[in-house]
Amino acid sequence: MCGIVGFTGHRQAAPVLLDGLSKLEYRGYDSAGLAVQQPGGTAMIVKAKGRLKVLADKTEQGATMPGTCGVGHTRWATHGEPNDVNAHPQVSQSGTFAVVHNGIIENYAELKNSLLKKGYTFRSETDTEVVAQLLDWYYRESRDVFEAVTSMLSAVDGTYALGILCADTPDRIIAAR
Ligand code: GLU
User: Which atom of ligand 1 is nearest to the CA of 77?
Assistant: First the structure.
């Protein structure tokens, strides 16, 4: 088991997220990552294989990541080896969605095939990347985050806790389980 944390407020998010993840370290994990929303842009992503300390060092204890809304993740790999690319957050092709996930998307292969046919390319070997790309696909049609999330949730089978950032709602974290 691994962990998800989120923060949105008036403080710099990354140090808070690192602190939150440190409290979940006892659960075990193989890699960790942060996504912090950048004003007027997409989320800044930093990921690292190994201990949380590697991620903390890489971001100077979070100082190098500005922004006040973000999510953090510790991963226990089920699909794809533990490495920086497969670590979460996973990001949609357009960069609009950043997703952290604990659990397994059972029907990810089938979903991935249909997304490949729609022209999506995948960077990681994870089941989770399918969630990010599906959100992108549904959002492209509706431009409504809530609708995109509910459509994605009805398409996926499996177990999941999800933390989602959308670049168009920069102070909001969407959570689903
Ligand atoms: N199935 C996902 C992966 O392998 C999430 C694993 C987890 O629960 O951390 O990336």
Answer: 4
